[in-house]
Amino acid sequence: MDRADYSSDTIETYIRSVKAYFQYCTDEELVSADIDSADLYVEHRQWSVSVHSARHAARAIKAYGKYLANEYEEGDPFRKLKLPKEPEITAPHAAAATDEDIEKLLSTCDQSTFIGARDYAIITLLAETGLRRSEAVNLHMEDVDIDEQTINVKTGKTAAAKRLLYLPNEAQGALMRYMKKRDELIAKERRRHRSSAWLSNLEALEPEPFWISHSTACPAFQPNGLTQTLRKKGNATGVDVRAHAMRRKHATDWLAAGGTENGLMANSGWKSGAMIQRYTRDNREKLAIDEARRLRDA
């Protein structure tokens, strides 16, 4: 996985999953290199935790099997291990967000304030580009080119996730308003406090984070901060939307507008077309209707 340029966080998650499988085999007195043991563990995860957890466990075990085959030439004992069928979307926040959802979230953002301008900008960016939560939050100043209207995603789960994205006009405007408030906040802090701990901590960060917060200890905006922001705005408006729901919306909107699947894969940082099916599955009928209308009018 390291040679395939997976992120360190992704690799660590897989390692933890394999270790959990080893512990299960130890507790149940099973042979860890036996596909029957793996089947039992995946089934155990499915019924004791969730189907999603079981699917991830199966992926981790299959990755471990490939490692065994490559490193020890003993063959892959888990080659025929099957992943549980992916469940249908049931939770509202797991489905694609709607235009109305986004409008409600944005209605809570007072762009005359720094926080309001920041929240408006990052929500708009997520909805308009389909960035992952971590990709959006971890942007640096050098990654955003307002003039060229591009976003340079340098960190991601795989090599495919490292990409250059187009910045749509609406997102460009929102980011410009945020950057103005950001500059005003820093200038104000510099005038008021010669030895500002917040400013010192911010300036010590390299490269300079694009999104910032009022936190003195951690002036760079964090992924959990975005999650909490969306939760608060959702509670205020009755909208249960996570960052991934906006990613699903972007994928659906791309195809509905006539965009190609290859273009969507490159834009979203996907290596497989299967991801398109996963992210647009709750809007398949709508996409089919839109496509039929385009074919009729062609």
Query: C-alpha Rg, in Å?
Result: 22 Å
Report the mean per-residue pLDDT as an integer: 89
Helix/strand-derived category reads mainly alpha
Strand order of the largest sheet: 1-2-3
Based on DSSP secondary structure assignment, what is the total number of beta strands?
3
- Bulk shape: globular
In N-to-C order, the SSE pattern is HHHHHHEEEHHHHHHH
* Strand portion: under 5%
**Quaternary structure of the protein:** single chain
Major sheet details: 3 strands, antiparallel
Number of helices: 13
Uncertain runs with pLDDT below 50, 5 residues or more? Answer: none
End-to-end Cα distance: 45 Å
Helix content: 55-70%
What order do the helices and strands come in, and which of them pair?
Elements: H1 8-28, H2 35-48, H3 51-72, H4 99-107, H5 114-129, H6 133-137, E1 144-145, E2 150-153, E3 163-166, H7 169-192, H8 197-204, H9 223-237, H10 243-256, H11 261-268, H12 274-280, H13 284-297
Antiparallel strand pairs: 1-2, 2-3
